[in-house]
Design the sequence.
């Protein structure tokens, strides 16, 4: 029997759960898993429900809409792999980790293509029989290059775009073309060491722990909603290059974990934060 | 406004959430937080709901009982400190950590008494103006001693009993007198190193990580449902005594975390496992 | 037989280890443990050696001085508890944790006194039969208050001063009175969230991990050499107060670990970093 | 200038460091890094020294031999990639992780070949232009199969053999053919859950943390000296398959870390333990 994930994002109100579960019950659906969260500051209500049964999607959405506040966001996703496009540049460690996990069946995703602004990663990607496209920025303005990127990305109609060390700064236009759909890995334990070469900064500062952060991309560089973070211990004997290498291992794990959360429809965004249910 | 925690443990069935939320709604109560879990193997349904409102406890329980399967367990606890009795023997590290946290207001508990089978810890406990009782096992059979312990414990009608390195083996009688109410800290990463002197065992085995485990006490020594575990890295330079010292820090943290979960009514037990919502 | 810890901090040079070990050998001393580190950037050489034997301290130091570069720092500490003074203000969690560990024999220290700028913690400290002094800042300039603090501190000739949530900003004069001898706990994962109310900052930013940092106090507020750091996971359901509570547990562990490293003479400082051997 | 790693494993004695460093000094060599450890129980002395200079290997070894006890083990390895053969069966996750790291230049190794007892992994391995050999056990006795494995392995004269989920039990003959040269990853936090399907065991037991262990292979199945371990949190919502998936991520990380330690000549073995310097 098919599994669906119902995602509701609305304003808290008495009887919400009752009204929602009433509709599910009337439609003869079973709740396999359910979690709710109400943010006490904003009184925003978030609900993620895994349901099974013979679902008539349009009817269900219509009936839910009727019992929910006007400003509600209601999503009903069948539990299935999401179409994804990965963007990269030259670095292979994060991309390679995703590809090998994909090969291994670890990702609930269909990687439709890898698009890079350099040729370096073509061999790696093609090993895995995944289409690779190079959209060079050579001699193009940022806007011109992005238009070509967007055009290429849209060919694959991805639900998610994963930046696997894509080293170009994105314009508002790009970001707003894919709201809440672009996942990035930042090579530092945000908000520490924002900006260039965080590992060198970390080395100079003599920190004992370094980390990485996966976040949604927004107009604010390195300031998007944080989805997942992890850290690793380092010590005085690490050169900044060794810190970078240690950090790369964290980057892989952090991006992988955040990616899975998105693929499983577990992440809500509000204000500049995430709720993970 | 008072907060209550509703705990439901029953068999999964279509419409459960609907029927429960219907009753809450009809009683004009608000759901602040809610999580459910259905165990796919046993089809057991667990629900923890934080509700606010003007609650008529008997009516609410009666109405919930009417809409739930016969075998259901329904608890409705006002959110308030629980009465606790701590049992100890001679070791002070875990007890001391609890006492200083209690002094600091970190525990949602009323520590009614500390009862030990030796005098060693009297000074420590009395520093914190908590009643200390020594029930010596001197010249008593295990059963005789336990009867005296039970008698003393019952004077304080505790909801929870915490074994803070209480080094006596408990009989079935004792365990069954307080079902799902006795919390123990085991000084190893169960199920590794069951039995005596786990740190010496760990040292001999040359492990690189040691841990501790907090679990409910059952008839099966060291085999009760696990509530919380944590670990710490060690290396070749640790003597077994140093491993023990490192382990003691984990024991404190693990017992504290498990204790908080119980105080917050977040732990369900089924089969020999815990569900934490 | 007495154990000594030999600490050498000098410029790297061929034959250093040979010359040092030659002196130790000539003095009929045994090396129990030894680690060296050479910083490749600065060619600074650090060595920590645990030696046993019948030591004539002056002779040994004289002979070592003869074989080492002029700019060398040579320390020879008998392995024994260090005299410590703790400074505090009103918060009890870090202080309480230190006191209970001290009571439990976990610290290789003699806590000579706790000095605070308020009376709040007197009861707690006196429970443990440790002298408590309140040096109020009431109506005093920062300099006047610090002079009184320094006067009181010096009565106890401490080797180390531990700031257990001492909430006063220290002047250069104070810092320079006790170079590399003042340990502080900062309630954030430095360099993230420098400044006031880091937990509120962390909450606003929606981070998934928070931490704490123990560092030497220098003129640069929150910028001293980092000794130890640790972190804990948090999620969207944490209010900033709950983040603070989770953070307090990390603060305790971090300060304790850094304190132990100092008590064991394992920390060297160079540039604005620490080498831990 | 070439870097060498000097590894000494002997019985502790006064003047050891002096005598060793004297030889190094006389040979005009520089000590870049040095750590020693003396096991207090056995009085075994372990030393790892990174040296640079113009080394005449035979002379140096001869002179060191002269100043060290007879039973000493002295190794002098040039810092360079080690030749490695990987054994596998059908599972791709650990092998794939090693291959992608190898591709990415993370491993100080030359992977000469992957040898498996099934054909399943040929495609994966050959993507990376690494020779793949299938030595089927079809219709062979354990001894016959191992003889063919040994024959194939020896073609590549590997310094290290890595078992990347090689699911065959090894005989004493095999183990003794490659003493202290066979690295295995065990899919549990040893010594917990020894034997078949540890994840199912862990699930049944309801543990809150699972782990993995990398160890040298000895005659004692799952009992060899432990090199590295790590863990990950799980909870009641994990099926045993989900625990296995979570565990696979730990297996990768643990094997990678242990492998690096061996490649960097940082691991000594004594009794059934490892010293890591």
Sequence:
């Amino acid at each position: 029997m098919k599994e669906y994930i119902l995602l509701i994002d609305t304003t808290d109100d008495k009887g919400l759960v009752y009204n929602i579960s009433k509709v599910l019950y009337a439609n003869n659906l079973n709740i396999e898993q359910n979690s709710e969260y109400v943010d006490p500051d904003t009184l925003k209500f978030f609900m993620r429900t895994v349901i099974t049964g013979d679902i008539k999607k349009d009817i269900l959405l219509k009936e839910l809409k009727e019992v929910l506040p006007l400003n509600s966001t209601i999503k009903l996703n069948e539990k299935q792999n999401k179409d994804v496009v990965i963007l990269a540049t030259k670095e292979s460690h994060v991309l390679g980790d995703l590809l090998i996990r994909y090969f291994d069946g670890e990702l609930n995703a269909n990687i439709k293509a890898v698009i890079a602004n350099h040729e370096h990663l073509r061999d790696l990607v093609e090993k895995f029989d995944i289409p690779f496209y190079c959209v060079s920025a050579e001699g193009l303005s940022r806007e011109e290059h992005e238009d070509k990127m967007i055009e290429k990305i849209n060919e694959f109609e991805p639900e998610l775009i994963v930046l696997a060390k894509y080293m170009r700064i994105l314009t508002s236009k790009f970001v707003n073309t894919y709201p809440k759909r672009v996942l990035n890995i930042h090579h530092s334990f945000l908000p520490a060491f924002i900006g260039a070469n965080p590992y060198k900064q970390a080395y100079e500062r003599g920190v004992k722990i370094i980390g990485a952060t996966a976040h949604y991309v927004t107009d604010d560089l390195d300031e998007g909603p944080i989805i997942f973070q992890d850290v690793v211990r380092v010590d005085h004997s690490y050169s900044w290059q060794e810190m970078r290498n240690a950090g790369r291992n964290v980057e892989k794990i952090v991006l992988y974990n955040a990616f899975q959360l998105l693929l499983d429809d577990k992440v809500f965004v509000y204000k500049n934060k995430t709720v993970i249910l």
Q: What stands out?
A: Chain B has two domains: 1-76, 80-274.
